[in-house]
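ok so I'm stuck.
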Amino acid sequence: MENHYSKIKELAEKYKNYTAENLSKLIKLKSLSLQEKEVQYELKRQMEEAGFDEVIIDGLGNVIGRIGNGKKILAIDGHMDTVDIGNIENWDFDPLGGEIKDGFVHGRGTVDQKGGPAAFVTSGRILKELGFDKDMTIYFVGSAIEEDCDGLCWKYIVEELGIKPHYAISTEPTNLNIYRGHRGRMEMRVTFYGVSSHGSAPERGKNAIYMASKVALEVEKLNERLKYDEFLGKGSVTISEFVSKSPSLCAVADYAHIHLDRRLTWGETKESAVKEIEELIKGMNARVEVLEYMEEAFTGLKYGMEKYYPTWKLEEDHEIVQTGARAFKKLFNRDPKIDKWTFSTNGVTINGYYGIPIIGFGPGNEVLAHAPNEKVPIQDLVDASAFYAAFAYEI
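replied:
not stuck anymore, here's the structure
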C-alpha cells in the first residue's frame, strides 16, 4: 500500500493543471441554490471524462459519480451551489472569471465549495488509473441546494435513492485540516398577536410590537447563558428579522414576528431550544414554531425538510478520524490538525440524522467562504485530490 501513496502523490501533482482548469470551468457557471443545472452538467461531463464507472443526475439535481461496486460504501460530498456575489465593488477580480493566476484559482465558489468536487474528480481519475479494486463502492457527490438548506440533498439520497454510506468525507473547506464536527442550527419564528385600536387611544388595544420587543431583549440575555461544549464552543441565538403589521400607521400594531437564528452546541436539541423560547413568551398571545423549507429544484421536483440541522461531532479516537489522520501522515509526513467548522455543512443530515461517520477535509480557508475575493490555492487542490484517493485505500 505504501507504494500507492507515492504514486497517488505523483499523479495528483501531474494533474495539477487539469484540476485547476476543471475548477475554473465550474466557477464560470453561476450556480445559486435551485439554479445549479449548468454546473451540474459540467461536473457530470468532468466525471465521465475522468473515467468514472457511472455518473447520474438524481431527481433533486445531485450529480452522483460511482467508482467500484463493492460492499462497503464511501461517499465523498461537495456542494455545487454558491451564495451570490454581493457588492461587486468589493471584488478585485471578476467573481465568475475563474482566473488561474499566482498559484490560485479565483472566483465565487472556489472555497465554498467547488474546489472540493474539482479535487475529487481528479481523485477518481487517480483511482481508475491505479486500478482501484477494493471491495468498495465510492460515490462522489456534487450536491445541490446546500446553501439554502444544508443536508436536504442527503435526505433525498438516503431516503429516496436508498444509498446509505458506511462512512463519508465532506470536502467543505478545512484548510487541509481534518474536521470532526460542528454546531447544529435551526430557524424559529416567534409570532405575536395583538389587538389593534386607533393610534389616538393606544390603551384600548394591545401592541404586538411591545410584546415582541420585550421578548427580543430577553433573547439577547438568553444568548449569554446558553450551553458550552469544550470542543464545539457555545450555543448562540440571535434575531435576524423583526416584522410588524398594523391596519394603518394611525393604529396599534396587531401583529409582529421575530426570526431566530439558533446555533446548537453539543447537548442542545430542537426540543430544548423551543422550550427556552416558550418560557420567554409565557402569558403572551404568542407562539413559537420551527420553520419548514420547501422549494422546487432545477429538476422540477418540490422537496423539503424542517429547518432543524442537528449538532454532530465524532470523538478524536473514532476509527474514521484516525483513518484520515493515518492517510494524511503517510502522504504528507506530518500529523494533521484535527478541528471543527464554525459554519454548518451537509454533515447535519449525514451524521446528525443518519449517524453515518463523517470527517471533513477540503481545500481552502473557510474565512473566505461567502466573502469577496474568494480564491483557493492550487496546491490545496492537489493535496486534497491526493487525500481522497489515499483515504479510499486506507479505510
